[in-house]
Prior knowledge:
alpha/beta; Arc Repressor Mutant, subunit A; D-Maltodextrin-Binding Protein, domain 2; 12 strands; 39% helix; elongated; disordered C terminus
Amino acid sequence: MDIRNLRSFITVAQYLSFTEAAKRIYIGQSALSKQIAELEEELGVELFIRHHRSLELTPAGKTLLREGNSLIVKVGEVIEKTRQAQRGIRGSLKIGCFGIEGVFLPHALKRFKALYPQISIDVRILTLKMIEDDLDQEELDLGFVVMLGDNLKPSRFMQRLVHRCPLCFLLPNNHPYADEASIDISVLAQDPFILLYETECRQGYDWFIDFCGKRGFTPNIPIKSTRMESIYWLVEAGMGVSFMLKDPKLTQTIPPSISIVGMQGEDAYNNIMATWKKEHHNPAVSLFLKVLDNIDIGLQLPLENPG
């Protein structure tokens, strides 16, 4: 189908007049009539009922007008994207974060924008479960999730370890162990723990239960949350203890009324994993992963989870 003939048809259909339509698109009336006739012959249908002084769309004409408008818009988008490709890589990248990526993400974003200025970036702060759900629904292109310990089991997503650091406890300042440099979790066996819901990070929740079990107790977890910010408030209020990654950039944001105490244990590590859907079709994901690969963020004990 000749796009010029389709555009001409849409103009005639809008004005229901060959004379008026010819004026609007700056061609002769006979040339316009020929374009419509060619389109009707190509499609094998009549598009107009021609009265003595007026035109009326046939059912086929009404359908072509409705669908043709959408097609013209799509063709315009294709043309614009093609022209943009000539000027450089373009597109968008939607990233989901939990709020603990400050040690590497600002550097990565800055580098990525310098390399690919035509790619727009949308960074969203979400819960861990929302990140995985939005990856599933393709509302996100890339996300960062948490895995704990050394045994990084395969995920249904593609994953790559981006940042690894020790864990630490969050204790109220008046806690008996608040002034210790580090402690074994067994000394907190009688304390109530405040954790993320197991649905937020199933692997991390299971790791914690197993970590405590290896030290002879089952933790009491009366309070759960979907966000670390609310956990800080609850610990600050003296309602329990918790833990997080021991990252200097992140611990600076902890309220002064909370003490940060190292967690002992060979596998007491937090892993931030870049996560994406295997079937993704956004080339910007691979470009961003390459940028992450080339940023020095002090990764310890490299681990890889191929998904």
